[in-house]
Amino acid sequence: xxxxxxxxxxxxxxxxxxxxxxxxxxxxxxxxxxxxxxxxxxxxxxxxxxxxxxxxxxxxxxxxxxxxxxxxxxxxxxxxxxxxxxxxxxxxxxxxxxxxxxxxxxxxxxxxxxxxxxxxxxxxxxxxxxxxxxxxxxxxxxxxxxxxxxxxxxxxxxxxxxxxxxxxxxxxxxxxxxxxxxxxxxxxxxxxxxxxxxxxxxxxxxxxxxxxxxxxxxxxxxxxxxxxxxxxxxxxxxxxxxxxxxxxxxxxxxxxxxxxxxxxxxxxxxxxxxxxxxxxxxxxxxxxxxxxxxxxxxxxxxxxxxxxxxxxxxxxxxxxxxxxxxxxxxxxxxxxxxxxxx
Length: 342
Prior knowledge:
The chain is built from 14 helices and seven strands. With about 350 residues, it is mainly alpha-helical. The longest helix is centred in the C-terminal third of the chain and has 37 residues. About 30% of the residues are buried.
């Protein structure tokens, strides 16, 4: 859904002007705002100064977009809105975080302003859940949405529903940290029963199967199921599949999985580490070292630094061992020739 924009000062609650009627950047003069606020709400001088100092997150673009979408709805149709942003007038615009999306900069929606605008607008209904979720907030908007749709929306997007869905996930992660891997797998199983099509959760559970219990076969099946739900957008899933193949000593299949990960994310460190494992296993040490060097450069957060350094040290040891074997073989050949000449 279209995101809002930030504007300084100016357009606030109680001005007598419907929210969204002024464009971004337009503002009332301090005198005009003071007169309006004091005539309508009896605002004190100190309260007025506080109001004038505040910024307003004015989601004008979102209002325009939603107005246009309302005109396109069929009978009983609705618009589902999911976004970040303040949900109460008390949340200051100064706390709103902007995000980069390709060449654009966006900021979360002012849900309080949108609710005030569409809640009072004739010919539509603005529906909110009983309790908002912690991060992503949801709203339903339509000209005349059915009561069934409204009931289902409130069931699916309420905070209590989110807590029910995520509780076993949080428990599984905590149990892993405590080293209780079998119990963690049980919690992941419970989580997947509640979210059977959550491909991210499948990938997480597959990693637990591999690294906690070394059950690479089960991890492979789970990762493959996750990829069947999302094959084109997650390098992490292809990395997990590659790791499972490596654990099963299926190096060629692992390499194909890592290459798919790199096709999605050319900066993928984990895929390079996995490919380096495969090349080292085939004694292709030059390529393994090249991949490790690239991965170290790309690992900006040092998340994989320890594993990369360990693999690099292992490959260097294997190179040294190979060089020593070749040197001994060369000396043996020389000794044989000298003995034959004698």
